[in-house]
Specification:
6-stranded parallel β-sheet, 494 residues, single chain, 15 helices, alpha/beta
Length: 494
């Protein structure tokens, strides 16, 4: 597929109910849109109410009231892997009996699963359309990340529709707002598969909750393409396009060793994500002969990070790796500045918001020199053909200088979605799941290079669905408001 003039899309602060027409834009007069977005809004949950809100100004006042979310693309309470996803979903729905019919008990009492599709039996595919789905934190304090993630998917689908879709089929999207609340994400994923009947889920965000969906995803056979930052579940249906948190922590630690640092520590959330970062740190410090001074845990949603920073200082950490959310990362930067603690800080892509402004803007001057892992190959400010092509589309949709034309999350999901569509395009109209898996797994012999991502070389299981290895690192300059790549993509040393 080649680039073409962009078409109108739905502004991120406009929530569209089923059947509502898209709002017109100047671009719509040039070529009417053929891409339809369904955004089903879930109402306030007890969890969000209990945690309260931390308004970062990311949710537009014009948006309907929804549950607040926790921060960043890798934040939130951990879903209990041993719990029943249906029980989680039921608990979430029972929290608000006033929820509208779009989120009623049908989520708790699912319909018959679609089942793994074979040729001639593919959910979400008609003669005229292909239905995709996603669940994202569109509203609340994680809206900056969620809006960027949704923007990238939307832009890519609209671009493809402008070119005639996939073999004449138009791309449609069901996008559900989960507020980055684990039970709501699990409920949304079940709805997408069992009620909406989507062909695939594209770039869902929620590393702490996604483990709760793998069982019924596997039962249904629904493809999950490019989820944001989870650990690889090694199931046929899931394709991981970026490095996990543990691998990024290893690469941060490798860099610290290259700089002559000998003592490193980790501040991470007290959940599965923090433990994944800890495992990466243990491997990396052993491989590099560094002293691992400790893992300081912070509670999910908590802004109380002071004792963790003080403990790292007292333990002599010369570099601290962060397995936290965006707000916690920004607060840690500010705390080290307040203490006069000269320490290298390095976060994973989700918590660091690497390549975009949503974490460093919150930290202000304290963000100087902050380092983050890159899941996409380049920052959004890079003078590169692939990044420039995305930026032109993003600016055409939302205006020059808009948040989505600087969002690293938008850049990431734009190219994740382009990769998905490239595989669909290669199937020559037969979208049976077995054909999709065969084509995707053939990338190990014929890798896909889209320019802004690491090369995708998916292969067969057990290891082949981690389609990209390694990560890059970028460092932020407050004066220039830019990210500079300081370590190119490569695999971890450990």
């Amino acid at each position: 597929m080649t680039a073409s003039a962009p078409h109108a899309w739905i502004p991120n602060n406009h929530l569209v109910e089923k059947g509502e027409p898209l709002s017109p834009s100047p671009l719509a007069e040039q070529s009417p849109p053929r891409f339809t977005l369904l955004l089903m809004v879930l109402l306030l949950s007890l969890l969000a109410a209990a945690c309260g809100t931390t308004d970062t100004g990311t949710a537009d006042d014009a948006s309907p009231d929804v549950a607040d979310a926790d921060d960043g693309a890798d934040n939130g309470e951990e879903a209990d892997d041993e719990s029943d996803p249906e029980d989680d979903a039921a608990a979430d729905n029972s929290a608000d009996e006033s929820a509208d019919d779009s989120t009623d008990d049908s989520v708790d009492e699912p319909t018959e699963p679609a089942g793994a599709a074979s040729s001639g039996d593919v959910p979400g595919v008609t003669e005229d359309s292909i239905l995709l789905g996603t669940t994202l934190p569109i509203t609340g304090v994680a809206a900056a990340a969620g809006e960027g993630l949704l923007a990238g998917i939307t832009i890519a689908l609209d671009e493809a529709n402008a070119e005639g879709g996939i073999d004449g089929r138009m791309l449609e999207l069901v996008a559900l707002d989960d507020g980055f609340d684990p039970p709501r994400l699990v409920s949304n994923a079940r709805r997408l598969i069992e009620e909406e009947g989507v062909y695939a889920m594209a770039s869902p965000a929620g590393s702490q909750a996604l483990p709760g969906i793998w069982d019924f995803v596997e039962d249904a056979g629904t493809i999950v393409w490019g989820p944001v930052s989870p650990q690889d579940p090694q199931i046929q249906e899931a394709y991981i396009l970026g490095p996990g948190r543990g691998e990024q922590m290893q690469i941060c630690t490798d860099y610290a060793a290259e700089q002559g640092i000998t003592q490193v520590g980790l501040i991470g959330q007290d959940n599965q994500l923090g433990e994944e970062g800890n495992a990466g740190m243990e491997a990396a410090t052993a491989a590099n002969g560094l002293e691992y001074v400790g893992f300081e845990r912070v509670e999910v949603l908590s802004q109380d990070i002071s004792s963790a920073v003080l403990n790292m200082r007292d333990a002599g950490a010369e570099a601290i790796m962060l397995a936290t959310d965006n707000v916690q990362a920004a607060l840690i930067m500010q705390e080290t500045q307040t203490l006069g603690y000269d320490v290298v800080l390095c976060a994973d892509n989700g918590g660091g918001g690497t390549g975009g402004p949503n974490t460093v803007d919150s930290a202000g001057d304290a963000a100087e020199g902050f380092i983050g892992g890159l899941q996409v190959q380049l920052p959004t400010n890079t003078d590169n053909e692939a990044v420039a092509a995305w930026r032109e589309l993003a600016e055409a949709y939302t205006g020059e200088g808009s948040a989505q034309s600087t969002s690293n999350f938008s850049l990431q999901t734009y190219y994740y979605t382009r990769a998905l569509l490239e595989i669909l395009d290669r199937l020559d109209g037969d979208l049976a799941y077995e054909n999709f898996h065969a084509e995707a797994e053939s990338l190990v012999d014929d890798p896909l290079d889209l320019g802004a991502l690491p090369i995708l070389a998916c292969g067969p299981l057990p290891e082949g669905h981690s389609c990209a290895s390694g990560a890059a690192l970028a460092q932020y300059s407050v004066a220039d408001e830019t990210w500079t790549v300081i370590r190119d993509f490569m695999e971890a040393n450990g």
